Amino acid sequence: MNPPTASTSATVRAVRRAGARGRLGWGRRARKPQDSYYPTWFAGGALALYLLLVLLPGLLGIGLAFTNWTAYTTKLHWTGVANFHALFAPHSFFVIAMENTLLFTVATVVLKTVIALGLAVLLTSGLKRLASLYRAIIFLPNLLPYVAVGIVFKSLLDPTTGLVNSTLRTLALGGLARNWLGDIHLALWSVIGVDTWKGVGYIMVIMIAGLLGIPRELYESASCDGASGWQSFRYITLPMLKPVFAVTTVINLVYALRVFDIVYVLTSGGPGYATATVYTTIFSQVGLGQYGVATAFSSLFLIVMLALSFVVIRVLHRPELQS
Amino acid sequence: MKFNRRRLALTLLVAVAVTALATTSAAGAAKSGGLPKGNYTLTVFADQDWVRPPELALAKKFKQQTGITVKYDIIPDSSYQQVLTTKLNSGQEPGDIYMGQPPGGTGSGLQTTFSVLKHAVDLSKQPWVSREFANARALATYKGKLWGQTIWDTVSGSWIIVYNKADFATAGITSLPRTFSQFTADCAALKAKGINPIYEPISDGWHQVLWFAENMSKAADESSGLVANLNNNKATFAGTPLAVTALTQIHSLYQSGYFGPTSLTDTFANTVPNMSSGKYAMTVNTVTLPTQINAADPSIPTTNYGFMPVPILNNQYVNQNPGGPTKFVYRQGKHVAGAEEYLDFLAEPANLNYQIARSTSFVTLDFNGVKSKWTPAEAAFVKAYKPNPQPVMQVSVNYVNPQWSQIGTDMAAMFTGQLSPTAVLQNIDDRRKQEAQAARDPHWR
Questions:
Q1: Is A182 on the interface with B (CB under 8 A)?
Q2: Residue B387 pLDDT > 80
Q3: Confidence check: pLDDT of B207 > 60
């Protein structure tokens, strides 16, 4: 390629200046087309609604965390960090709730991602017959309401009459029968298991879409170069699915950090506080009329959620490979 | 043209029909003196354990008489109180009638728990008020007004231990325990014979609190001024040695395995099948449990079971609780007059006797002039043991009943080693302080 000449450089500079001033051609002022404003108007309207109905109440809510707001308050007073202080009092269970929530989050994110990826690979590259039927069956639990799933599994996991333990005893595996929702060491993992069962289908569908978007030529080239199945998976599939992982991880993360329904129906946060999560604890405080404390906890947790989401997106995001 | 004529004809037809309907309704309303007759639904918001089948049958009878449909919105035990207070605190209508257990104490708990001044209707002038027991009325009274109606068996409704006589005989227990140490010895004997000593449904979150709150009346009886000091903020639960002893004794029952292997997931609703199976020897319930078991399985006679006081703190009293689930009329509801009419209907003598006759869990009701149905065993038990001169703690001490489910959760945490008995008591004190300050109780300033 030849280096630019002085005249070429001058032309480039002239074009740049013309562009900066909106001039195109000789003696004609360029005007920005009216069409280019339409996206701004539409986005602006949606943004205004979002600011008014979501962001502003959220910020006001954070402000209420510094007041004496309860169900019985007639006049609000500034109380500083008293509500936040209550969260870390010696017998407060907010720390336990936070720990349970983080454990639930990590476990469900990992389990749903790994299992969903495995199922997605199986249904795109493995099974050919009836793959669509299997996809539909695996996706079905995602359509069920959380309350219905919770009630059913509460019955299934009953230590005396539940189907799980009854089946184990019938198969002479009674030694494996447990008090799935009543053992403080198992209860949270049982809830994680139920939630993973329900949510894995949704993530699988997203993974399938990602897998089908990977160009086949990459695998063919790799095959020609003598790459094994595992090497193709490791050096082609996984890197190409990174944007999909970013999406599914954020989806799983935001859901898991805010989990409430499945925990409340299965265990109500028990036994004791073994499965208490952030939002069951906040609900408990609202039930007691302690709105300020509940708001303080949710505000604190908002910061945790934002930080985690930011880290996940930064770590997993990278520009897509050019085809 | 044809299309316009058809449109016009249809519009006129609809207008005539609407006018006719409106005229008929107005005439009907005028005829009944302004009260809309029937044609609407009253909703009663209730805990699953507070509505008996005879009451549901009475609701159908009420509809036949008035045309008003009564629909019961039943909420599970474990979440009822939380859902109710969340609805009331956030301004959502729970129903035309909502139920609750009066918190007792000095009455301010009615306001902090059920927002009676804002959400309930004053029932002081209702025709049935004079027939209701005075001590039951007192618990639903605040600032001189009666806010709720309690139709409950507050006489035989004391929580005591119901035991299986055959299981006791198998374990060689020949006399009833009178102290806690005798009680634990009997539990050990039962366990040695492969019988679970006690059916304790911890999962619902409220039953285990009975062991503590009901028997703290024994502590109140032994410690003069305890109740007054607790209400005046001159004493705390954590600083009351008998409270620590009571919780430690209850904790020891769980630690020794006397509550059975599945107590953390057992539910109150399964008490009858579990007690009738013989797998469990005892449970905390009312004297009507054998009647309920017999109703479920007529081959099991009521005489298979006996009664004794709960021997925490060596208690030998029958604990007294004049309160019971109470119905409040929601002031902001659309059918206040209909709700009052329904309460009046339920309190009619014939309907009270109907409930007593057909309910396996009522021996009598807290209204004068009803026909009680004591069995010989029930009457003998009530005669054999003295009533505690102190009412149960959830009635006499402020800010205990509103945190009942939280105490239950803390006790479950205590059983599983997450909390010590002293920590449970400190949490009770902390929550009492929170609610007292919210209620602007002068003793907590």
A1: yes
A2: yes
A3: yes
Superfamily of domain B160-320+380-444: Periplasmic binding protein-like II (3.40.190.10)
The CATH number for A95's domain is 1.10.3720.10
Asked if B321 contacts B392 with a C-beta cutoff of 8 angstroms, the reply is: yes
Rounded distance, CA B383 to CA B386, Å? 7
Q: What percent of chain B has pLDDT over 70?
A: 93
Written as six digits, the tokens of B105 are: 């104490």
**Inter-chain residue contact B89 with A268, CB threshold 8 Å:** no
- State if pTM tops 0.90: no
Chain A residues touching residue B237 (CB < 8 angstroms)? none
DSSP B388: E
* β B160-164/B305-308 pair status: antiparallel
C-alpha distance from A256 to closest chain B C-alpha (Å): 22
Residue at B191: amino acid letter: K
Contact B230, B397 (CB under 8 A): yes
Yes or no: say if B380 and B90 are a contact pair by the CB < 8 Å rule. Answer: no
pLDDT along chain A (323 residues), means of 10: 48 51 49 67 89 89 88 79 81 85 96 96 85 91 94 94 95 94 95 97 96 92 91 92 91 93 92 94 84 90 87 71 42
CB within 8 Å: B264 and A269: no
The answer to whether the Cβ–Cβ distance between A272 and B426 falls below 8 Å is no
Cβ <8 Å between A287 and B83: yes
Min Cα distance B355 → chain A (Å) is 32
Q: Where are the alpha helices (DSSP H) in B206-362?
A: 207-213, 216-222, 226-231, 241-255, 271-277, 289-296, 336-346, 349-358
- Is there a contact between A179 and B414 if contact means CB atoms under 8 Å apart? no
> What's the CA gap between B312 and B215, in Å, rounded?
6
A89/B115 Cβ within 8 A: no
Residue-wise pLDDT tens digits, B128-172: 999 999 989 999 999 999 999 999 998 888 899 999 999 999 999
User: Closest chain B residue to A269 measured between Cα atoms?
Assistant: B409
Looking only at the bridges linking them, the beta strands covering B196-199 and B41-47 are unpaired
Residue pair A115/A196 in contact by the 8 Å Cβ criterion = yes
Angstrom distance (rounded) from CA B415 to CA A89: 21
Chain A hits for B401, CB-CB cut-off 8 Å, are: none
Tokens 């199986």, residue?
Answer: A122
CB A273 to CB B409 under 8 A? Answer: yes
- The reply to whether A58 falls in a domain is no
B252 closest CA partner among B320, B323, B156, B184: B184
Query: Is there a domain that residue A175 lies in?
Result: yes
Structure tokens of B84? 């109710």
With beta carbons less than 8 A apart as the criterion, state whether B281 and B196 touch. Answer: yes
- Give CATH 3.40.190.10 domain extents, chain B: 41-153+322-367, 160-320+380-444
Strand partners, B308: B161
Q: How many domains does chain A have?
A: 1
In degrees to the nearest 10, what's the CA dihedral of B73, B74, B76, B77? 110
| Confidence at residue B188, expressed as pLDDT on a 0 to 100 scale | 97
In tens, the pLDDT along B20-40 reads 555 555 444 444 444 446 789
Flag whether A233 is in a domain. Answer: yes
| Interchain contact A269–B (C-beta under 8 A) | yes
Query: Per CATH, the architecture of B41-153+322-367 is what?
Result: 3-Layer(aba) Sandwich (3.40)
| Residues in chain A closer than 8 A to B89 (CB atoms) | 71, 286-287, 289, 291
Task: Tell me if A157 is assigned to some domain.
Answer: yes
- Tell me the residue length of chain B: 445
Write out the residue range of the structural domain in which residue A90 sits.
84-316
Q: Which of A68, A268, A279, A290 to mutate to test the interface with B (most CBs of B within 10 A)?
A: A268
CA distance A286 to chain B (A): 6
Q: In 3-state terms, what secondary structure has residue B171?
A: coil
